[in-house]
Write a structure and sequence with these properties.
The N and C termini lie far apart (about 65 Å). The protein is about 15% helix and about 55% strand. It is globular, with a radius of gyration of 18 Å. The chain has about 110 residues and is mainly beta.
Length: about 110
């Protein structure tokens, strides 16, 4: 019984550490912004990257395939053709997806 508890405790401890994220230092600026924003992040490994702009219902409004990027700091400009409002910016790096809120103003 003690051995079983020790194994369960060890399993729980090993699962408490999150897997390293493929991207870090994710930022979006300016926020709020007018008709464009910049998105920046750092990749730990080469990844195929895309950026999408969605409305709050999840409808895809715009998409940009950035291609396969090398490890290191990345920064891209994105022109948003949207009316003023709140939007979601989705960054996909391989299997990982990150979502940020962005406010468009005029």
């Amino acid at each position: 019984d003690l051995l079983l508890k020790a194994r369960v405790r060890d399993l729980l401890l090993s699962n408490e550490r999150p897997a390293p994220s493929p991207a870090s230092d994710l930022w979006l600026a300016p926020n709020p912004g007018k008709d464009r924003f910049r998105i920046g992040f750092e990749l730990r490994h080469p990844r195929t990257v895309s950026v999408e702009l969605l409305d709050l219902t999840g409808k895809l409004l715009q998409s940009s395939q950035l291609g396969r990027l090398s490890p290191g700091k990345q920064e891209f400009s994105f022109e948003a053709k949207t009316p003023p409002g709140l939007y979601l910016v989705r960054l996909q790096t391989g299997d990982a997806i990150y979502t940020l809120k962005w406010s468009s103003v005029r």
